[in-house]
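Why run this: before we spend reagent on co-expression, it is cheaper to look at a predicted model of the complex and decide which construct boundaries make sense. The entries below are exactly what would go into the expression plan.
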Amino acid sequence: GESVGLHLPTLSVQEGDNSIINCAYSNSASDYFIWYKQESGKGPQFIIDIRSNMDKRQGQRVTVLLNKTVKHLSLQIAATQPGDSAVYFCAEILSGGYQKVTFGTGTKLQVIP
Amino acid sequence: DTEVTQTPKHLVMGMTNKKSLKCEQHMGHRAMYWYKQKAKKPPELMFVYSYEKLSINESVPSRFSPECPNSSLLNLHLHALQPEDSALYLCASSPHRWGLTEAFFGQGTRLTVV
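The model came back. Tokens follow.
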């Protein structure tokens, strides 16, 4: 039979606008969260992290917000550029000597020049 | 050196072949990981090595056999794979210490089983 196509959630943003990518995580005991960027044909690349005792962290052009009450993470990218086009994954980590990283489903960001 | 290096970048193998994927890091990390990633899906954890010992096997079929010969190297031996095993195989490493740090990923090996 015919296979059903799989679709990543996609966010299309005009170059120069701000992007907001959302993620719901599953384990309320997770104590560390990371946003990864994955370009086509490459491995995930670290963008920014946040610990569970924080609710906001800022980097260069990126901000991560954590709402533990509703188990929600967001990644805000300021002045989005074509080079930001990629798939973005949130990841939750339950620490314990080594990092068992559980990835969210991912969002594809398309930047329109 | 903050890289995780994986070889080969691409691999095509038959269902009766035996092949190995290799991963190397020189960051002094003592935790190393294998992930499998299908198209349009997030990476899924397969194995975790901690101080060269297998710590986690996420119920991976025995046709995948990991090996950690030393603290810098991680191998994944493949035998009698199925076409559905075709995927991007990612290696990662992280420091083994209390505290929270990110895992560094390699570029992956794109595996096609024919």
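The mean pLDDT of chain B is 92. The interface with chain A takes residues 4, 6, 31, 33, 39-45, 48, 50, 55-56, 90, 92, 94, 96-108, 110 of chain B (CB under 8 Å). Bring this page to Monday's planning discussion.
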